[in-house]
Amino acid sequence: MDEARIPEGRRVYAIGDIHGRNDLLNILLEKIVQDDADRGDAKSEIIFLGDLVDRGPDSAGVIETAMQLKQDLGDVRFLMGNHEEVYLKAAEGNEKAARFFNRIGGKETILSYDISIKEYMELDNEELAARLPDLFPASHVAFINDFEDMIIIGDYAFVHAGVRPDVPLSEQDPKDLRWIREEFLAVRKAHEKVIIYGHTINDDVVEAGNRIGIDTGAYYTEKLTAIGLEGDQRWYIDTGA
User: How many CB atoms sit inside 10 A of residue 140's CB?
Assistant: First the structure.
């Protein structure tokens, strides 16, 4: 991993799971902008590793911030997390998906839109599922629908959850890229690329030779983390104390 590098002239920042913490996202983005300015000229880009939504209090705000950032900077890319996958299914009015969405932190996402806690509590599962297609703005749904499954830059592959071991990166199942955990974490041998991922929460960044995990549980730890990459260098920026 120490020899992994990205192409000359480029600088990449990747942001871990945000989970509705728009406040922390804005703090981290300010730090990234300052870090980028301090490091001098390069073609800079930002990658979001997925799970922008659920659990935290302002998923709608996170989506708005992300959309505005994409509009302002252009070189911003987004990976589809498992929570975005369920969000999109719930947005179709699918009752089973809406029920599951609620269980994994979707309640907080729903309440970040234009619905009162009173109305939310009065809706049964079927009524809630029917309400979601109108509640979630079409612009948010379209934006999330365009999220990518994997991004490869130089010697790094960026995914949300991980990769299926012994399967070429070009043949990975999107479900694995969004949901895999134990099978990916248990493998120590090298993959085609060093995998940078979120999805699995740790107290701090995990550097494990074949992978780098940067999900530091922002929605409850207050620590949202990003990795910076340039040439063969890497560094970390976070919102922790």
Answer: 19
- Token code pair at residue 169: 């990166």
The pTM of this model reads 0.96
The neighbouring-strand residues paired with 79 are 148
Return the biggest CA–CA distance within the chain: 57
Q: For every one of its 241 residues, what pLDDT tens digit does the chain have, with 9 covering 90 and above?
A: 668 999 999 999 999 999 999 999 999 999 999 999 999 899 999 999 999 999 999 999 999 999 999 999 889 999 999 999 999 999 999 999 999 999 999 999 999 999 999 999 999 999 999 999 999 999 999 999 999 999 999 999 999 999 999 999 999 999 999 999 999 999 999 999 999 999 999 999 999 989 999 999 999 999 999 999 999 999 999 998 6
CB 57 within 8 A of CB 90: no
Q: How far apart are CA 43 and CA 41, in angstroms?
A: 7
Give the whole-angstrom CA distance, residue 121 versus residue 3: 54
Amino acid at 82: N
